[in-house]
Write a structure and sequence with these properties.
Blueprint (H helix, E strand, L loop, with lengths): L10 H9 L8 H27 L4 H12 L3 E2 L1 H8 L3 H13 L3 E5 L7 E5 L1 H22 L4 H19 L10
Helix pairs in contact: 1-2, 2-6, 3-6, 4-5
């Protein structure tokens, strides 16, 4: 839908209007959609980074807490290393720092005393959830301008675009 006098214009509408005379074959719908997706991605990244500052977390600390929470709050260090795509020694250093901050604790496995289990503490879970909530609230605010049906349609349309993007790719290219 092209903007009309009744439709509010955003930054991207001006961007597309500036480029159309320069690139006559430019599809304004494609340029508009791609530019908006990029700008939304940058905006959400900034919100996430600010939430990390607000909760005094480094990106790698949040990532480690996030992967641990995603495993139900308990995992072996080797599982976390695999999830984070890191060498076990790198994970050990991360876990040392998180343990000093009281966000995780390491205990011996009850089934195999040679194994260590990493557990998210209440403080670690609270900090992780707090940082997650900041971004979640912003995502809800942004998508809250759409009806539930519009959100479902947007999700379906983006899935189709992602399937085209993923076609032919292997490995963890999209799992950042």
């Amino acid at each position: 839908m092209a903007p009309t006098e009744e439709t509010p214009q955003d930054w991207t509408d001006g961007h597309v209007a500036r480029w159309q005379p320069v690139l006559p074959d430019l599809d304004p719908a494609v340029e508009g959609a791609v530019t908006r997706m990029k700008k939304l991605s940058v905006h959400l990244r900034r919100v996430r980074e600010q939430s990390l500052v607000d909760f005094d977390l480094e990106r790698h600390e949040f990532d480690t807490l996030h992967k641990l929470a995603g495993r139900g709050g308990s995992a072996a260090p080797s599982d976390l290393a695999q999830d984070l795509d890191l060498a076990p020694a790198s994970v050990s250093g991360r876990l040392d720092a998180l343990e000093k901050r009281g966000f995780i604790r390491r205990t011996q496995s009850t089934t195999d005393r040679r194994r260590v289990v990493v557990e998210l503490t209440a403080s670690g879970r609270e900090t992780w959830l707090g940082a997650m909530d900041v971004l979640g609230h912003e995502e809800e605010r942004l998508l809250g301008v759409l009806t539930p049906e519009e959100r479902a349609t947007l999700n379906d349309l983006l899935r189709r675009v992602m399937l085209a993007a993923e076609e032919g790719l292997t490995g963890d290219h999209w799992h950042g």
